[in-house]
Amino acid sequence: MIKVLGRANSVNVMKVMWCCAELGLEVERIDLGGPFGGNKEPAYLKKNPNGKVPTLEDGDFVLWESNAILRYLVEVHGGEPWLPADPRQRGLANQWIDWSATELAGHMTVIFLQLHRTEADQRDMAAVEKARLAAAGLWPILDAHLGDRDYVLGNTPTMADIPVGAFAYRWFEMAIERPDLPNLAAWYGRLKDRPAFREHVLLPLS
Ligand SMILES: N[C@@H](CCC(=O)N[C@@H](CS)C(=O)NCC(=O)O)C(=O)O
What we know:
Elements: E1 2-5, H1 11-23, E2 27-30, H2 42-47, E3 55-58, E4 61-64, H3 66-78, H4 87-116, H5 125-145, H6 161-173, H7 182-192, H8 195-200
Parallel strand pairs: 1-2
Antiparallel strand pairs: 1-3, 3-4
The structure holds glutathione (GSH).
Glutathione binds next to helix 1 and helix 3.
């Protein structure tokens, strides 16, 4: 059985758990990291030398980096529609997955860690505002793209929706000022209709 090592409230664990649920995979998730600790223990570092979560175990195969895990899961346990067969569609899916990691994640993480994992009197609100403005400049790119489609690649959700969808949850649920992005909001509403998204992503912000 597949094992996912990592606490449920990690955005990167959320992505993996949401993907597993969409693919109908049986998964054992083990709490690790954050208040649970264990991620700096030698036994864990042997599996994931970064000391971060998530780590996937599929039998004796071990994999870290949440987006690499997503790609592995849809390749080995998924297929169409989650893994687009067409190389151009797959390229576009990877474009959005990489965009989430290289452009969006850093800013979203600053906002989240400051507002939800830092005591109010310790918060660097200038850093929050800088990151919020940066993110507010990025989300319109996805909003424009979603103007003529229901999901990132078209009429059905694929692996491309997962990383941006997990960050969209924080974007829409954190108490921050947001530009009006109707296509993004409609897509987020469609994700919220999905049981797998509700179970693994729509958790209390903590
Ligand atoms: N690029 C990595 C980032 C992993 C990461 O930063 N994980 C965070 C949680 S979202 C972590 O392990 N933080 C330390 C902890 O939970 O103790 C991935 O996508 O898997």
